[in-house]
Design goal:
Helix content is 36%, strand content 26%. The chain is an alpha/beta fold. The longest helix is centred in the last third of the chain and has 18 residues, at 167-184. It is globular, with a radius of gyration of 17 Å.
Length: 231
């Protein structure tokens, strides 16, 4: 297993959002984390990333405990978050965005160096000198994805990556996610309101309701369950 969340409880202030949450993601596996707004999906990703400290439970990456580890250590170990809203440097060019992150994460022997990103995502090669904030939403999302996989990612936490994208760009981005996970054994947790696209991409579906896991199984089993009718 690459990422393990075990009996997690987390929230904000006095409010508990996630309770007794347990699920695991294997190398190369894509898990769609689904549920209504407020179900606790983004809180789960933030807890895994260390942006929220859990009140109870354990977070492990490749067997190593990370529950109290700072965000920087989690990133260095290969846990990466693609946040809702992209998380790029809008005033820097595409090349500057990549170089800034590569300076910290893409050393010798890295899975993805800058040259690999330009080859994988030709639109970034074409826009190397373009200020990131002036690009289209789809191009910005491709850059955000590139920054998330720089270096040697082990698990991607993807929070609404398709938001604001045209259907053809969603298809392209999801194809790249699939390629990275399949070819390099990278795990991924996908929070996504585009349920049909998420189900088509995922190997496994975890459905949350009220901060708890209410379903964990294959996409086909999710489609056949009564829970599927609510999405």
């Amino acid at each position: 297993m690459i990422l393990e969340l075990e009996a997690i409880a987390a929230g904000y202030g006095a409010k508990t959002v996630v309770s007794d949450l347990t699920f695991r993601v294997a190398a190369g596996e894509i898990v769609a984390l689904l549920g209504h707004n407020g179900a606790g999906k983004t809180t789960t990703l933030k807890t895994a990333m260390g942006l929220i400290t859990p009140r109870a439970g354990m977070v492990r990456l490749a067997g190593a405990p990370l529950t109290r580890a700072p965000v920087a250590e989690r990133v260095a170990r290969g846990l990466r978050l693609l946040p809702e809203g992209r998380g790029i440097f809008p005033d820097l060019t595409v090349a500057e965005n990549i170089d800034v992150v590569a300076a910290r994460l893409a050393g010798r022997g890295a899975m993805f160096a800058p040259a690999d990103l330009y080859r994988l995502l030709p639109v970034l090669e074409e826009r190397r000198g373009t200020r990131a904030g002036s690009m289209s939403g789809g191009q910005q999302q491709m850059l955000a994805f590139a920054l998330a996989i720089l270096g040697t990612p082990r698990c991607l936490l993807l929070d609404e990556p398709s938001i604001g994208l045209a259907p053809n760009l969603v298809e392209r981005l999801f194809a790249e996610i699939r390629n990275v996970c399949r070819a390099h054994g990278v795990a991924a947790v996908l929070v996504e309101q585009n349920v049909a696209a998420a189900m088509a991409l995922a190997d496994r579906v975890v459905i949350m309701n009220g901060g708890r896991v209410v379903f964990d199984g294959t996409p086909q089993a999710a489609r056949e369950s009564n829970l599927w009718e609510h999405f």
